[in-house]
Specification:
Strand content: 15-25%
Number of strands: 12
Oligomer: single chain
Helix content: 40-55%
Order of helices and strands: EHHEEEHEHEHEHHEHHEEHEHEH
Structural class: alpha/beta
Strand order of the largest sheet: 9-8-7-6-5-2-1-12
Shape: globular
Number of helices: 12
Largest sheet: 8 strands, parallel
Length: 289
C-alpha cells in the first residue's frame, strides 16, 4: 500500500500546483479528475489542463507525468448512469477507461449517485446501474481497467444497493472505491460502519480516506444521513474512524493499492492550517502502512 491524494485536495490546501503540493507532502501519486471536457490536470499549472481526446495527446500527458515524477492511482469520474443522454454518458466513460489503460492507471472511480435516485424504486435503480456497468465493461474488454463504485451519497452507502449491483454485474473488474468516512456519514453507528468497511474491503480497487469526529454520545447511534457533517468533519488523524483497523481490513483482503487522502475538513481552516493538516494526514497514513 501507499499514500496518494486527490488533485482537488492539494489545490484546496492552497498549493500553487499539484507538483508543489506533492513535494511538500512527500507524495508522488494522485487521483486525477477526468473531466467531461476530456482533460486531465496539469501537474505544474492548474489553469492549463491537458486534453486527452486522442492517443497522441494521451502520450504527451504520459510524458508530462514522467517528467514530473507523478503516478496516477485512479481517475475520478462524476458519472450519471441515469443521464438523459446515456449514449453520450457511456462514450465519455468509455474514453476515460481507455485513457486509463493507455496510461497504466489501475482503476477508475465510478460515482454511485445518479439523477432521480430517491424517486425511483430500488429494483429499478439497481437494474439501471447494472445495465450501465455491464455496457461499460463489454465496451472495454480490450482495456481491462478496474472499476470502483464509491460508497457515496444516498444509494452508494446502502449495502443492499451495492450487493445488488455487484451480484448483477458479476465481473471481477468491478469493485469498490472504498470511502472510509462515507458509511459513517450515512448515519450508520460506528460498530456497523467498521463491520461494513471490513465486509467490502475484499472488493476494494481504490480508496478515499476521510474522517468525522462526532460527539461521543452519538458515535454508536443511528443518525440521519449527513447529520451535522460540516460541523464535525475532521482531519483524518483526529476523527472517530480507526484507520489502523481499516488498513488491517484492507491488508487482510490482499489490497495493495493506494490510501487516497480526501480530507473534506480543510474548508474549516485557514490556508496555512490546511497545509499543516495535510502534512499530518499524510504522515499518519504512512505510519499505518
Amino acid at each position: 500500500m501507499y499514500v496518494s491524494i486527490r488533485d482537488a485536495t492539494i489545490l484546496h490546501a492552497g498549493y500553487p500546483s499539484i507538483k508543489a503540493g506533492l513535494a511538500a507532502l512527500d507524495l508522488s501519486a494522485i487521483e486525477a479528475d477526468f473531466t467531461r471536457e476530456v482533460t486531465l490536470p496539469s501537474i505544474t499549472d492548474p489553469k492549463a489542463p491537458f486534453p486527452v481526446k486522442t492517443d497522441t495527446e494521451v502520450d504527451a500527458y504520459a510524458k508530462h507525468l514522467k517528467e514530473n515524477g507523478v503516478k496516477i492511482s485512479a481517475f475520478l469520474l462524476a458519472n450519471n448512469l441515469n443521464a438523459a443522454d446515456l449514449d453520450a454518458e457511456h462514450a465519455w466513460m468509455e474514453r476515460a477507461v481507455r485513457v486509463a489503460h493507455r496510461l497504466g492507471v489501475p482503476a477508475v472511480r465510478i460515482d454511485s449517485a445518479m439523477s432521480g435516485q430517491q424517486e425511483l424504486p430500488f429494483e429499478e435503480r439497481v437494474a439501471k446501474f447494472v445495465a450501465g456497468i455491464k455496457r461499460l465493461i463489454d465496451a472495454t474488454e480490450d482495456a481491462p481497467v478496474d472499476l470502483g463504485i464509491e460508497n457515496h451519497g444516498y444509494q452508494g452507502n446502502d449495502p443492499n444497493f451495492l450487493h445488488g449491483v455487484f451480484d448483477g454485474v458479476g465481473s471481477p473488474r468491478l469493485g469498490m472505491t472504498l470511502d472510509t468516512g462515507n458509511f459513517y456519514w450515512r448515519g450508520h453507528p460506528m460498530s456497523k460502519t467498521l463491520k461494513t468497511i471490513e465486509e467490502f474491503a475484499k472488493l476494494a480497487k481504490h480508496t478515499h480516506v476521510k474522517n468525522i469526529n462526532y460527539p461521543e454520545e452519538t458515535r454508536d447511534q443511528q443518525r440521519e444521513m449527513g447529520w451535522e457533517y460540516g460541523r464535525y468533519v475532521s482531519p483524518i488523524y483526529e476523527g472517530d474512524i480507526d484507520h489502523k483497523k481499516v488498513v488491517g481490513f484492507l491488508r487482510a483482503a490482499g489490497y495493495d493499492r493506494d490510501l487516497c487522502i480526501e480530507d473534506e475538513s480543510l474548508g474549516k481552516f485557514s490556508e496555512a492550517e490546511r497545509k499543516d493538516i495535510l502534512m499530518k494526514d499524510a504522515e499518519h497514513l504512512k505510519s499505518l502502512i
